Amino acid sequence: MADVLVLAASNGENLKLAERFAAAARADGLHAAVIDLTALELPLFTPRALASGTPAALKALEQQLNAAPRWVICAPEYNGSIPPVLTSAIAWLSVQGDDFRALFNGRAIAMATHSGGGGHTLLAALRLQLAHLGAHVVGRQLVSTSANPAKDASIVDLLQRLQHLAAPQS
After folding, report:
1. What residue ranges of the chain have pLDDT lower than 50?
2. For residue 131, how many C-alpha atoms fall within 13 Å in the half-sphere facing its CB?
3. Buried b (16+ CB within 10 A) or exposed e, 111-142
4. 71 contacts 45 by C-beta, under 8 angstroms
5. What is the pLDDT of residue 166?
6. Backbone φ and ψ of 146, nearest 5°
7. Distance CA 119, CA 41 (A)
8. Fold classification of 4-164 (topology level)
9. What is the separation, in whole angstroms, between the first and last Cα of the chain?
C-alpha cells in the first residue's frame, strides 16, 4: 500500500514532476507510487460507455486509489482547465457504487502542475471539483513552468502539508 499515490495526467513534464514527488516522498521514508493516467486503457467517459460496462483497468485504479490515504495530482492546464484524461478518470471513478463522493470524500490531496499556460486556471478548476467531491485539498499548490521549474523545497513542503491532513473517513 502506498502512503502517497501520485497521479500524472500527462506523459511529459507532469509525469516527470510526479516522479519527483514520489522520489521526495520515498526520501522521507514514505511508500510512494506513480500512476500515469495516460497509460491506462480507460475509454472516454460517456453514458454510452458506462452502459457498455466498467472498463477492466478501472478496478485496479480504484483499488490503488482507495488504498492510498494521500494523493498528489500532477496535471497540465488543458485549454484553460482540467485535461481530458483526468476529467474522464474522475468521471469513471465517481460512478462506481452508490455514492459518487465515496472515493474522494475526506481524501487528502495536493495539486501540482507543469504547464506552458501557467496552470492557474487548471488548479482553480481542479480545486473546485475535488472540494465538490469532498476531498481535503492542501491550501498550497505548486506551479511549474519551463522558465520557473519546481523547486525541491516546494515539493517537500507540499508533501509535509499533505501528511498533516486528516486521513479519509470510512
Report:
1. 168-170
2. 9
3. bbbbbeeebebbbebbbebbeebbbbbbeebb
4. no
5. 54
6. -60, -35
7. 26
8. Rossmann fold (3.40.50)
9. 17
CA atoms within 13 A on the CB side of 141: 22
Q: DSSP label at 37? A: G
Residue 130 main-chain phi, psi, to 5 deg: -65, -40
Q: Phi and psi of 72, rounded to 5°?
A: -120, 130
Count of alpha carbons within 13 angstroms of residue 161, beta-carbon side: 18
Among 79, 165, 164, CA closest to 130: 165
137 forms bridges with which residues in the sheet? 109
pLDDT, tens digit, 9 for 90 and up, residues 106-154: 999 999 999 988 899 999 999 999 999 999 999 999 999 999 999 999 9
Three cell numbers, residue 140: 498550497
- Provide the grid cell at 103: 472515493
Radius of gyration of the chain (CA): 15
d(CA 114, CA 144): 4
